[in-house]
Amino acid sequence: MELVDQAIAYLREGFANINNPKGLLIALAAVIFMGSWKQWLPISLVAVVVHIAIGQLAPVLSGSGGEVTLPPLMEEAFWTQTLVLFLGYLVIIGIFYFLKSLLLRRGGAH
Question: Is the pLDDT of residue 107 over 60?
């Protein structure tokens, strides 16, 4: 039961991290490129990479004179946060794609 509680906590935290303008725009762009449910996991993974890249490049792109640095790949906290982001993007992209498939349903043969 403890594992289920921990999994639910990760899902909630992931949803909270993605539920901001940056995360929602990345998820929306990902859904635009998503053609089928088979692409759900890879698209979510790419969304996480884009999210991390934007986070690392934000100081440089804002013009505040920041430097390009690599994320802390050797720290457990980084990988935990990456897993949380991945779970959040899975949820949001899944919801967005489900809505897209409902709204853009192709008509049957006439």
Answer: no
Tokens (6 digits) for 79: 């990988």
Does the pLDDT value for residue 108 go beyond 80?
A: no
| Residue 6 to residue 8: CA distance in whole angstroms | 5
Instruction: Answer yes or no: is 109 within a domain.
Output: no
Q: Is the residue at 108 inside a domain?
A: no
Structurally, the chain folds into a number of domains equal to: 1
- Gyration radius of the chain's alpha carbons: 16
Helix residue ranges, H only, 19-75: 21-33, 40-61
Domain extent at residue 23 = 2-103
Separation of alpha carbons 23 and 21, rounded Å: 6
